[in-house]
Amino acid sequence: MKNDTARGALLAALACVLVGGSFTANSVLADYPYAGGQFLRYGLAFALLAPVAGRDGARRVRALGAGRWGRLALLAAVGMVGFNLAVLAAERSAEPAVPGVFVGCAPVVVAVLVPLLDGRRPRPTVLRGAALVAAGAFTVQGWGRTDAAGIAFSLCALVGEVGFAVLAVPVLRPLGPLTLSATVCAVAAVESALVGAVADGGARLRIPGGVECAALLWQAVVVTVVGFVCWYRGMQRLGAERATLFSGLIPVAAACTAPLVGTGSYGPAQAVGSALVGTGVAFGSGALSTLGARRHASSDRAGSPRPPARQDEAPGAARPELRGAAASSDHADPHSAPPPPAVTHPSAGPRPPGGP
Q1: Dist CA 242 CA 336 (whole Å)
Q2: What is the dihedral of CA 311, 316, 322, 323, to 10 degrees?
Q3: How many CB atoms neighbour CB 306 within 10 A?
Q4: What share of the chain is helix, strand, coil (3-state, %, to 5)?
Q5: Threshold 0.90, pTM exceeds
Q6: 344: how many CB neighbours lie within 10 A of its CB?
Q7: Which of 144, 169, 190, 259 has the fewest CB atoms within 10 Å, i.e. the most exposed one?
Q8: Within 10 A of 270 (CB to CB), how many other CB atoms are there?
Q9: What is the rounded distance in angstroms from the CA atom of residue 161 to the CA atom of residue 186?
Q10: pLDDT values of the chain reduced to their tens digit, one per residue, 356 residues
Q11: How far is Cα 107 from Cα 109, in angstroms, rounded to an integer?
């Protein structure tokens, strides 16, 4: 891959691995008020990102029109606050694997939706890679107990995951990854506060315990600040279609980190699913075809013969030690013996009259 594409792939992969690790952190926040936790997470993330964005970020935000502000509000509501609400609601009547399987289908939806919104046909390579990623996510997580409500909220979680990528496309260019991350965190913090005021009232916030505080800091600093910036920078380089392929790494990272806190295990099914996800990401992003092209080009260069001499050159022109002999043989009589070394070259002209 080109350097820019390779960096984008690494950034998107890192972001999704961090998000996958956040599912393990969520398991220790089950008793903390949801809206209050989201308010603390996104509020702290904004406080860390805003000084880094600086005056340039403030200038970009002031230049936004009403339409783009509406898109940012929708992005925060659907892709951040709404997504987390849908996952929590789905897990009330379904096992965690069920919303995870639906979210794992996001690469397929994005691979179809983004090209259609741009007025072009989906890329077959990306579609095949997305299908492999979805199959790998299903294999990693399996399928669990659920009901109609669990399926409905899992579909809402899928919509939130797709919206997080698709809704960001038009505002990523004018804001840039850093300012976009800071802005959506500020909007999500306000929306979380409103949800908490309506749903939980005065119980929306409480002092977290030691483990809860560590989990909230992990989500705010690592998952949100680092993860969001890496995600949008990766999407800036790869495009939404190829970047969303890496979301298949989310269940893989969750499965790998779950044993660390005793909430799951990593067995043969997780290993096979991880391999499917990796293959789908490599195939859909073009990494396999590009690597094969590079190897083919290298073998062609290694096995190519030396280019022939130009037609207007003598065969020994590339060897300086043969140039003199070649020049002499061009002017010499083929029937005469070679002249002794002291004799003047014939091309030097006739001897002057009166000489010895």
Answers
A1: 76
A2: 10
A3: 6
A4: 75, 0, 25
A5: no
A6: 9
A7: 259
A8: 22
A9: 19
A10: 567 788 888 999 999 888 877 766 666 777 888 889 999 999 999 999 999 999 999 999 999 999 999 999 999 999 999 998 888 888 777 777 778 778 888 888 898 888 888 888 888 888 888 888 888 878 877 766 788 888 899 899 999 999 999 999 999 999 999 999 999 999 999 999 999 988 887 777 888 888 889 989 999 999 999 999 999 999 999 988 888 888 888 778 777 776 766 656 678 887 888 888 888 888 887 665 555 555 555 555 555 555 554 444 444 444 444 444 444 444 444 444 455 554 444 444 443 334 43
A11: 6
Which three-class secondary structure state does DSSP give residue 340? Answer: coil
Name residue, tokens 């950034």: 11
Yes or no: say if 227 and 18 are a contact pair by the CB < 8 Å rule.
yes
Structure tokens at 294: 């590079």
Query: In the structure encoding, which two tokens stand for residue 231, read together?
Result: 């995600």
255: tokens are 């499965």
Cβ(60)–Cβ(176) under 8 Å?
Answer: yes
Radius of gyration of the chain (CA): 33
Structure tokens at 69: 């502000």
Going 126 to 277 to 15 to 23, the CA torsion angle's sign is positive
Q: What residues contact residue 163 under an 8 Å CB cut-off, 6+ apart? A: 74, 75, 78, 79, 82, 83
Residues 6 or more apart from 270 whose CB is under 8 A from it? Answer: 139, 140, 252, 255, 256
Q: Identify residue 31 by its one-letter amino acid code.
A: D
Residue with tokens 């939130």: 160
Q: Which residues contact 178 (CB under 8 A, 6 or more apart)?
A: 49, 52, 53, 57, 229
Q: Which residue has the tokens 């741009």?
A: 118
Q: Which amino acid is at 48?
A: L
